[in-house]
Protein: Bifunctional chorismate mutase/prephenate dehydratase
Organism: Lacimicrobium alkaliphilum
Amino acid sequence: MTDYQHKLEQIRRDISALDAELLELLAKRQQFTNQVARTKIDAHMQVRDTSREEQLLIKLIKQGQKIGLTPQYVTQLFHVIIEDSVLNQQMLLAQKANPDNALPLNRVAFLGDKGSYSYLATQKYFSRRPGDLAEMGCQSFDEIIQAVETNEADYGVLPIENTSSGSINEVYDLLQHTHLSIIGELTHPVEHAMLVATDTEISQLKTLYAHPQVFSQCSHFLAELGNIEVKPTDSTSAAMLRVSELADPQVAAIGSAAGGALYGLSPIKSNLANQKENHSRFIVIARKAVRVPLQIPAKTTLVMSTVQKPGALVEALTVLRDNNINMTKLESRPINGNPWEEMFYIDVEGNLQDGPMQKAMDALRGMTRYLKVLGCYPTEEVSPTRVAAASALREG
């Protein structure tokens, strides 16, 4: 080994030792934030204190600048730390409010098998929950719902919308006819890559496997490929399994690089989605609704049909406005057997236990033909802490 190599190895050992220390400190910090959460439970305090978060971030940025760290680096790092802290505190509060939901084994049904985007979302969501995870791959959305309804699974994870391809209508239609409740949500990044089992190039490919939603989200890229056969599969994992089994340089799958690695596949091109910021929103369903503490930001999902008269939908939405309730999504779906009539799915920011939400629900029940609450659940979208004094920080 040369002197240069020896010196490099020593530096790498020092970095590894420092990384281990950082992990220990992060774990210790998490223990403190859990103590904060328990104190907030007793004091009935809100999870987030954005003014304190801003003050903390400003202080950290200034400290970082003194030792050569850029404000962007410090901000990005602590956004991740603050988000993790908020989500952990919310999880502890939710556990306190729903003690019967703590299971030693969480049987979770999701679309596809290991490596699918639903599988990755499932792993992400339940990583914060107590109990072991029993994975139950399903071949359709209907199979997921039936598994939970018949007590074969405790929970189901369903994709409901994507920033590129829009809403998943089949899931909305199924939600209308189930007695299950939405008890959680998460947003998961979808990073499509072209995955192959052997050394090959795009020019050699003749067949491409993927889920239909994936083809829709990557339509611009597919149009550029030209003469290539696309074959839809029931899930992303099924596409990856097929390519792995064929081990043919003329076939490829579209999926995540992390999922493909589980099947021995390698990416040859990444960032295939039409929109580079491509995310899917997933909902978590269960047989029993959850209670959401008022300290936690909550969403409520409703489905309703209005009376057949001009302005009926506007009147219903005005109820939300008058009660200062923010609507985050409005989706319409046709009613089977009733031509030209629609069912409306609505997501709002609000907790069913809160006064304004209760008032709005009473008003909606009196003016709609049909109204059903699909779920009230914690929102896991943690908005980044904003630093209003950023310009002053640059000067200082």
